[in-house]
Request: fold
Amino acid sequence: MDSSLPPAEELVLVDRELARLDAHRAQLLARRDWLLRVLHQPVAPPAVPRPEAAPRSAQNVLLTLGGVLLTVAAVAFTLVSWGSMGIGGRAAVLGAVTSAALLGPVALLRKGLRSTAESVAALGLVLTVLDAYALHRVALPDTGALSYTASAAAVLAAVWTAYGRALTGLRIPLPAAVAVAQLPLPLAVLAAGGGAPAIAWAALATAVPDLVVALRTKPAAPRIAAFVAAGLLGGWALLSGLALSAGTPLRAAPLLLACAAPLLYVAVRGLSAAALPSAILAGLSLIAAVGGLLRSVLPEVWAVPGYAVCAVALAALALRVRAAAAEGAQDAPWRPASAVRHGLAWAGGGVLGLALLWALPPVAAGLLGPPAGEAAPWSGEHAEPMLTGYPATAPLVVLLAAGALAALPRGWARRGALALVWALLTALPVSLGLSYSPTLALLLLTAAAGLAGAVRPGLLTRGLPEAEASGEGVAWIAYAGGLVSAVDAVALGLDARAATFVVLGVLLALFVGVAVLAGGARRLVGACAAVLAAAGLVGAAAAAAHAGPAVSGLVLLVVPAGTVALGARLRRHRVAVAVEGAGAAVALCALGLTGGRPALLALALALGGVLAAATAVRPERRPVSSWVAAALFLLAAWVRLAVWEVTTPEAYTLPVTVPALVVGVLRRRRDPQASSWTAYGPGLAATLLPSLLAAWTDPGWLRPLLLGLGALVVTLLGARYRLQALLLLGGAVLALDGLHELAPYVVQVVGALPRWLPPALAGALLLAVGATYEQRLRDARRLRERLGRMR
Reply:
């Protein structure tokens, strides 16, 4: 094959043409695949507009509107066009229209037009109401409106009921009959001039048949209507009975008892969702009825206890029935029989809770009275009670509730009973009006009982099932009550000197017993409380000796000394931490008391340092106590120097620097890798920096000279031993000290120079630095590396 092109060039052209053909072939293959996918996809049908309303919904709307319009027309005819027709015409028109409206649904139901039949039936019911109205206007105008309405409602209810039972395909007549049946009795009572009690009885008498209808009727519509009507009328009767019981309990008791009967029937035979609420309401009705009878024959102060007794009796009866039933795990609150028991128990518990709220003010007064007393300590005067005139029967309610809870074999009930017993003992002094000594004795007994319960909780959990017998919750509740009563006893004992010593002594013995006999965290709390009681005794003794606050603070250090000795004996025991911590808190209070006299404060700080040093002897306390001891000794020295009016800063800083440097040397010996900043930095900075500040404000020459010499020695030592902290601190202080000495001369020279010279010198310096910038960077890098190699 001949060609005019060289073979190499022709080969290039052929390769290019083949590449172009391959690219075009790839495009055609991709287009072919897309066309195949389009051909195999199903064709979507055209979108059809979706109707916005279903046919039945549209039908119902049209039928409802038609019925409403016909009803409006009938009402307008009756009220407006009535007078233009004779008596015969009136009767004929209404009778014919009403008969047609009531008979029309018969034919409509046969043809299956149920919705149309419902609309026509509703029109017929409305027409019967208009017939009754027309009959009153024409035939019985002299009859009372209320009496006639009651009678007409009874007749209409009977007629509509018969009509609904005859045409079972209609849903409107029976609920309408139930609704209109609620009117006859209440309206008849109003027509007869009955008051609120009579109306309540009428409402209850109407609600009972409603309940029968609701429970015995199968169609849903009349059942719901009857149940709602029974709830409304029965609720009205119950509320009326409760309101009546507040004023005339004798008249209200029969009504409340009558309300309880249908409620119990509903709880047993009614819907599962209504069983428990009905039982609760029945229990409240019973308690209100019987409690009201008791209130009518007892004095006023026994009113609330009477209701509480009824509540406890009802709850006990319900629980006894529950125990007899022995349903075990299947005793669920939504079961009918169980709902009655649970509901009655909850009703009794709720009323008892309200009674407890009524009994709480004496408890609060007994709890807050001693701390809020305004009498001066040891004045012999006692504050008046915070609450006077409150019924003395309030503690009986607390006692009754405590007994009721204690009878339940449950852990939560036992804890609640224990709390109520403490509240009872706290409220007794206020309710009984006890004098000072019996009140104080009762507080101490309450505290002792609570602490004893914390030590032996098993005594408080006897009779509980094994799963509920954990005594921790009971023990802590008893412990909390004992601690609160102890605080109240201390606050009350401050009124008299002898009482203060007696209270603190008794509490010290009690808390020591808890610290020895109790277990867990209760032992630790008891140990801390014992230390505080001992501190109170020591402080009271100092106050009795007429020592001032500062001297009392010194005397109070006896307590930390005792805790240090006791901690050394206990060593690693958990109680040792609590004892020593409480002792440290007492020591802080002692230091605060001596703050008014600096000389005694210095002595107290020194004694505290001795105690901390004695504690630091023990290896387990050394990491903390050693620093505390050093700080206290230092503070003692500073306070003593301040008392001597020493103003030289080195007298305050050198006592810090010397031991700090000694400690640093010892540490570097043990750990050669330790940083010089950690070992020597704090000690050197404690003296060099304050001295530098003092040197800058000192007009003399001695301090700057000594500071410069000292800084020079530190710098040389840092360079000799390659210690970074010494070199930098010493060098910086030496430079600043020298600058301070040269500052006056620099100021004089600058003042003598022309004003243009400083900027010129600064510019020349910047040019020189810029010219040798790279060399300066290398020098700075070398200096940083050398400093980094130092320790």
Remarks:
- The two ends are 90 Å apart (CA to CA).
- The first helix runs from residue 7 to 40.
